[in-house]
Amino acid sequence: MTHRSAVLLAATGGFLAACLLWAVLIAPRAQMVARWDAPDGLHHALILDDGPDLTSLFGSVRRWRLYLGREAESPSYGHFVPLPDLPGVDRTNWQQSRVVWFPAGVRFTFPTGHELYVPARAYQGGR
Questions:
Q1: Region for 26 from its dihedrals, namely left if φ exceeds 0, alpha if ψ lies in -120 to 50, beta otherwise
Q2: Buried/exposed 24-63: b ≥16 CB within 10 Å, e otherwise
Q3: Closest by Cα among 81, 86, 75, 74 to 116
Q4: Where are the domains of the chain?
Q5: Do residues 63 and 47 lie in contact, with contact meaning Cβ atoms separated by under 8 Å?
Q6: pLDDT digits (tens, 9 = 90+) for 96-108
Q7: What are the angstrom distances between the C-alpha of 2 and each of 8, 12, 29, 54, 83?
């Protein structure tokens, strides 16, 4: 192995190690922004902030998700719906959403006026 090849290999390895460290340190950790409980007390709706969208090169685009399921403290299994990063909508705005639970599903009205209906079969039951 020549000196030039060794330097190139070391530089590539260092770059990959730096990328891995960066990904681990900045890895998105979902934080609960808002919570609504169904009248039955079994199901919950959460707005989750997954942090900045790392695929966005410019701007401060965030990744938001709506979660519907039974696990309110650590949502992992349930129904997830990606939400758009709407202009002017931040953590406090999501909390102002209106949520109405029906036996057949749940309707969300977001601060922007957008509405989303999720049928109960999407989040009730199990595998």
A1: alpha
A2: eeeeeebeebbebebeeeebbbbbbbeeeeeeeeeeeebb
A3: 81
A4: 28-122
A5: no
A6: 999 999 999 999 9
A7: 10, 15, 43, 37, 52
| Cα distance between residue 51 and residue 29, in whole Å | 7
**57: its two tokens:** 């090169």
pTM given for the model: 0.71
Amino acid identity for residue 49 in this structure: D
pLDDT digits (tens, 9 = 90+) for 47-73: 988 877 767 666 567 888 999 999 888
Quick one: 66 exposed, middle or buried, by C-beta within 10 A (0-12, 13-18, 19+)? buried
Residue by residue, DSSP assigns the chain as --HHHHHHHHHHHHHHHHHHHHHHHS----EEEEEEE-TTSS-EEEEEEEEE-TT-SSS--EEEEEEEES-SSS--SSEEEEE---TT--HHHHTT-EEEEETTEEEEE-TTS-EEEEEGGGTSS--
Under 8 Å CB-to-CB from 78, ≥6 apart: which residues?
Answer: 67, 68, 69, 70, 71, 123
